[in-house]
Amino acid sequence: MEKVDDFYQSVLSFYDNASKHANVSEGIISQIRSCNSVYRMRYPIQSAKGKIKVIEAYRVQHSHHRLPTKGGIRYSNHVNQDEVMALATLMSFKCAIVDVPFGGAKGGVKINPWEHSEYELEKITRRYTVELVKRNMMGPSIDVPAPDYGTGAREMAWIYDTYRAFNEKEIDAAGCVTGKPVSQGGIRGRTEATGRGVFYGIREACTYKDDMEAIGLTQGIKDKTIVIQGLGNVGSFSGTICQDEGGAKIVGVGEVEGAIYDKNGIDIHKLLKYRKKNKTILGYPGATSYDKEKRDIVMEFPCDILIPAALENQIHKKNAKKVKAKIIAEAANGPITSEAEAILNKKGVMILPDVFLNAGGVTVSYFEWLKNLSHIRFGRMDKRFNENTYSAFVDLIERSTGKKIGKQERDFLTKGGDEIDLVRSGLEETMITAYTAIRAIKKRKKNIDLRTAAFVNAIEKIGSDYSTMGIFP
User: Fold this and answer.
1) Three-state SS for 441?
2) Residues 4-34 pLDDT 10s
3) Alpha-carbon gap, residue 365 to 316, rounded angstroms
4) In angstroms, how far is the first alpha carbon of the chain from the final one?
5) pTM of the model
6) Residue 231: closest CA among 250, 213, 207
7) Which active-site residues does the annotation give?
8) Which residues neighbour 469 within 8 Å (Cβ) at sequence distance 6 or greater?
9) Whole-number Å distance between alpha carbons of 309 and 85
10) CB neighbour list of residue 431: distance below 8 Å, 6 or more residues apart
11) Three-class secondary structure of residue 37 per DSSP
12) Which terminus, N or C, of the chain has the lesser number of Cβ atoms within 10 Å?
């Protein structure tokens, strides 16, 4: 397998290929290509047993064409500068594609979070926050972190609390970080956001009959067979929502302990309960199991749609030819290397690129940031008004027709939007609009794939921002 360090080079390769098709000047192309700020830090923490541990961490701000910059914080043993630079670069393009007004950023802490106690993780997280605050690299108008691999709402609450301690008079302090618990200014629907965005993106791509016929599939997501690599937050929500709301059939799943396959279908809800109880997906009833040594076979399972939802560089030049899927939906960041992509394109595989498909997280993070700045919960002002208005319409129809409708139907027709309803609606609209724009560029430019079209879309939007900032005559 290609080295993790090649991830950044793959991103640059995708960028360089797309920049040839973008209507942007060479100078701005060069500016967008580079990361603006790279901060590497080392700091000590004391464990519960009194031992001193030195932590290596990073924060990269790729582009300041829009502020604040935005990007998650990853806790992983594999974190290095190139990886964080690659992820920050992708974040800039991701935000541009879904029209979220942020520049891209990313953070990384080089630890295995499962090897540390909660006490140590809190120390590591709070000290990381202090390092950023001291250097003015964090704030609701500067740089706004979020969860990523190895982090979640708990870590975001620690970050918020630490930032607020240093900025106690800042009224918008809650906007310094997203992905917080709802009780701490978070937003409903954030936990599922990336996985739900993956579903909306796949569903939209499958609505185009001519595109599906070109790869030998029928229109729509219903009854499509899906294989998922990675049952973390993104993979589990992608699977459950594709199954429950899309009517797709999950036939294969891969995890760190191995892989399973069942052509008759795997109920993701039951699998998640099984894994929670048994600490493994292996041995799931009715499925063929492959142990840890053969776990990469998950990429080779026959299916319509393959969803890599783990880490980068999972599909590379050595296994790309063995992929049997007609569609690869990149729920993870950078799961396909540039060399593998060339092989897959020749095979006629449709690739739904990460810079579009997993943008659900940053989209809903944007909604949370807006909620924090406006200091009001979505739906609070108009939910009851809408319910009363819809109820009046139903009453009018009942009087006019002389017929009554059932309580269940009335409740459905008169329901006002709760926060989670509005978040899901906004996310759905964002993903549909973004895919429509990417597909239009692909059709217009001809002979380019969806990833190139997505990058062109982002480059031209960012380039337009730079051109109107007043720094170029």
Assistant:
1) helix
2) 448 898 899 999 999 999 999 999 999 999 9
3) 31
4) 47
5) 0.90
6) 250
7) 106
8) 65
9) 20
10) 98, 197, 200, 201, 204, 359, 360, 363
11) strand
12) C
Contacts of 5 (CB under 8 A, 6+ apart): 80, 82, 83
Those residues whose C-beta lies under 8 Å from the C-beta of residue 408, and which sit 6 or more positions away, are none
Q: Coil, strand or helix: which one is 357? A: helix
In angstroms, the CA 159 to CA 146 distance is 10
Distance CA(443)–CA(447), nearest Å, equals: 8
Q: Which of 145, 68, 64, 138 is nearest to 109 (CA)?
A: 145
Domain boundaries, the chain: 35-184
Q: How confident is the model at residue 313 (pLDDT cuts 50, 70, 90)?
A: confident
Q: Of 318, 310, 366, 367, nearest to 339 (Cα)?
A: 318
Taking the domain 35-184, which CATH number applies? 3.40.50.10860
> Is residue 248 within 8 Å of residue 218, measured between CB atoms?
no
Q: What is the DSSP letter of 416?
A: P
Angle, CA of 142, 110 and 115, to the nearest 5°: 125
Phi, psi of 251 (to 5 degrees): -115, -15
Whether 473 shows a pLDDT value over 50: the answer reads no
In the chain, the amino acid numbered 385 is F
The H or E element spanning position 225 is strand 225-229
